[in-house]
Amino acid sequence: MEIEKKFLVKSVPDDIEKYEHNEIEQAYLCGVPALRVRKYGERFVFTYKNRRDEPEKNICIADEFEREITREAFEHLKSKADGIVIIKTRYRIPYENLIIELDIFHGVHEGLVLAEVEFPDEKTACHFVGPDWFAEDVSGDHRYTNNYLSTHTVSIQD
Question: Is this model's pTM higher than 0.85 or not?
């Protein structure tokens, strides 16, 4: 199970390049449940993700299962994907005892920057306070899910 919150970002940290990062390319084969293929650096992964968010708590909860696949399988499945192939750079930034995954989008979503934080439990998620460079909590806004972004062009933040 995945428990996370998602935030818009006021400004990218000045020292962003010092953090571990990878280029990500991902495509969706189905929206609900989400069936996704992802190239993450040199890893290729097939993911099943079934969201069961809790809007009243403003957290995203999903059952998620991942399996490594070959480059050939990734390329084959990507060619069958619906909509937009999402391209982004993901930075992994330590924060307190958690990791912020900062996504800087490219291509049709150029200009969009989102931060995601995964939590060990709902209580930690509900009490989380992010760094000062975080803006609005958009955990409950489906327009900022990668699944939605795979079929809609959203390139600038409100």
Answer: yes
